Amino acid sequence: MSIPRPTPLSALLAALLALVPTARADTVEGRIEDISNKANTIQVEVSGKSQVVLFGPQTEFVNAAGIKELGTPDLIKVEHTPGQPATRITKVVFALPPGAEISMEELERIRAGKDPFLLVDARPKGPYLEGHIPGAIQIFWKDLPNNLDKLPTDKGTMVIFYCGGPTCPYTGSSIEIATKAGHTNLKGFQAGIPAWKKAGKPVVVLGVVFQHSPQVLVARLHSPVQNVHAIAGKRVTYDVVLELAARENIPLKVRDIQAAIQDIHLGDLYSALYALASKEFFQEAFPEKKMLFTEGCAESFDPTRYEAWVLGEEYGRSMIHDFNNGAVGWTDWNILLDEQGGPNHVQNFCFAPVHANTATGELMYTNSYYYIGHFSKFIKPGAKRIASSASRDVLQTTAFMNPDGKIVVVVLNTSEQDMSFKLWCQNKAADMQSLAHSIMTIVTE
Of 50, 162, 170, 248, which one's alpha carbon is 20 to 30 angstroms from that of 332? Predict the structure, then answer.
């Protein structure tokens, strides 16, 4: 009888190591939403969802000297191993046709000159209303083929396109479309609105022209009302705003801004306010004011879609976004509607969290009712929002501390895959799993 020889220790270690899963290198591409130099993290929007990546001293930067030359909404490509600092971060830039690019100085000379030209902002309407160069009209590049009549009839007249900077492809795409339409004098201000704002140039926000200066942001309204002052920069108290306004003898009145936006179509106004809220515009200008979201709903009622899971996910995604960007409350437009999605005075029938059959009295609870409940049942009045972020790109999250000190974390997963994760809080971690197309609320002591 033979006795098996013992397996060498090195072979055992190799076998054990073979059982340990190794993280694979990954490449993600998206636009920067936020950068934390303290945490060495970059929050990137990838396919409509936020993902957090790390950077460190060994990270190689391409098309940028370092993290200081990156910012929102730059498009970047990140090569990294999940959980580890990125090995390479590339700032993606888009080149224009030879001879098409103009500098800021050239743009200013053209604007100050007497020759006819047209300045076109190629971004969507939301960013345009959030801030654009005075005199620019808005034509989103995808809509340009159907709006060529807005360009000069004389195809030799200069047309200048711009968008969100060198990492934005809309300028080049617009030039390509206009060239195919026969226009021969096309230019692109490739530095775009980020460089324009950084240089302290005037921008138009919600029909108000803001003239930047190192200390004061002077708003000259299009309507015949008083000028408005606000401070350029974050974390400036309202008292300082009033002091500077008084120093220059220009009163600060909320109704002035209201008068300036009365002529804007309501749909455009809602889009602009939604975009501005994410930039903390109103918190900076009016820190004592509270933002409350109202009239949320899912349109295009169809009784065959009562159980459509996307209805609840739209609520969850919107509520997380709004709370993370300063909203202090969230209300639905209609908690209860009838079996036809009404009544509605303009026949705009919608979904609601609860539908009633007016003939039988039966109530139908859609999944949006329960998605709302993940917030309203656990986040108590007086709760304070606290920072939270997901390192998994398929997860979205927001968190609050209730008056009793309990922490409430809401986690949304709109993807097709289950996702395991660790909930880290105060140097402690707990293993969790978020199921595909689910919402979960975690309450910690």
Answer: 50
